[in-house]
Amino acid sequence: MACQRNTMVRRTPNVFLFIPNLIGYVRIAFAVVAFCIIRDVPGTAVALYLASFFLDEFDGIAARAFNQESRFGAMLDMLTDRCATACLIVNLALLYPSATPLFQLSLSLDLASHWLHTHSSVLKSNENHKIVGGSCNWLIRMYYNSHSVMSLICTGNELFYCCLLLCYHYSGPSVPGIKMGLYPLLVVTCAPVALLKAVISLMQLLSASADITAMDCLNKEKKTSRD
């Protein structure tokens, strides 16, 4: 009987070594190196940061292709995204001290909305935080249910912050026909997307708060009925 149990334990897949999670570790390594060199070689740092960001697409593809989707992988992705964005915003606050209150607001909104949204998903026993129900705001449903919409908004948001950092050091190659370098142009172009991402985060925060308080009320009603 003991041998049978040991055999079952050995056959249990090691989630830490799933291919998508290995890609996740590479993402973390890229981000760590990026923030170690961001002051000395910002261009290379941004390239590594964006490489880490775009690898998120490949770990999702690998998870579906090898049937290796996991809660750990989903949380690893989200935490990598949140921590990397937080570090980037901290660096931006150092470069643009007058805009520090805006960066603090952006960072707080990003962390708080994702934390509450994830906690709400766990309480509702959803498989992952990207599953949203019909009770959510239409913008949140569109954001999470449409992969192309989510990718476009997240990419625009990250490009906004990355190009804002690059603009501090250089304007980049000139754009023909426009009296503006490439990086300032991308900042202006992506600014509305970054603002939309902030609006979605605010709605996500409010929606998750409403869901959690609704569950609180339901639990109190059940407790009262039992008493």
Task: Explain what you see.
This protein is an all-alpha fold. The chain has a single domain, classed as Up-down Bundle (Four Helix Bundle (Hemerythrin (Met), subunit A)), CATH 1.20.120. The protein starts with a helix and ends with a helix. The chain has eight helices and no strands. Helix 2 packs parallel to helix 4. The protein is 78% helix and 0% strand.
Shape: globular
Structural class: mainly alpha
The CATH architecture category equals Up-down Bundle
- How would you name the oligomeric state of the polypeptide chains in this document? single chain
CATH class: Mainly Alpha
What fraction of residues sit in β-strands?
A: under 5%
Query: Could you give a short account of the major beta sheet?
Result: none
State the helicity in percent bands: over 70%
Q: What is the C-alpha radius of gyration, as a whole number of Å?
A: 21 Å
SSE ordering: HHHHHHHH
Low-confidence stretches: none
Number of domains: 1
